[in-house]
Design a protein that fits this description.
The longest helix has 31 residues. By secondary structure, the protein is mainly alpha-helical. It has four helices and no strands.
Length: 119
């Protein structure tokens, strides 16, 4: 496998990733989290905290977005495999949604710490 193959693979993977983002933009939750991310980063710029805290906060939003992409992908698969209502399908979708929720709660808790505990 030469460099030409590696470049083609990279270009193909990039196209696939962009197609995934385009599909995700059709999801309401993903669009809402983009808006939340804009607010999140504006607040990071405005808040007067050490750089390490800003870096920690900066890492959180891409984690939320990544988990939302995984959640949406899992929901697509579950809906394809089990189009009718199914308790197992519901549990799988609820658990992947909970993973997103945990990251959002973590982000809120860290912002609470920033506002309540840091000088």
């Amino acid at each position: 496998m030469g460099m030409k193959h590696e470049v083609r693979h990279f270009v193909s993977a990039t196209r696939n990733s962009l197609a995934g983002l385009k599909a995700a933009l059709k999801e309401t939750a993903f669009r809402q989290e983009i808006l939340g991310g804009i607010l999140h980063y504006v607040m990071i710029v405005l808040v007067n905290v050490p750089l390490t805290v800003k870096m920690l906060l900066g890492i959180l939003w891409p984690l939320i977005m990544s988990m939302e992409l995984i959640n949406s992908a899992l929901e697509q698969i579950v809906d394809y495999i089990s189009p009718e209502w199914n308790e197992f399908a519901k549990k799988a979708k609820d658990m992947s949604s909970a993973a997103v929720g945990i990251l959002i709660v973590l982000t809120i808790l860290i912002w609470g710490y920033v506002f309540l505990c840091l000088p």
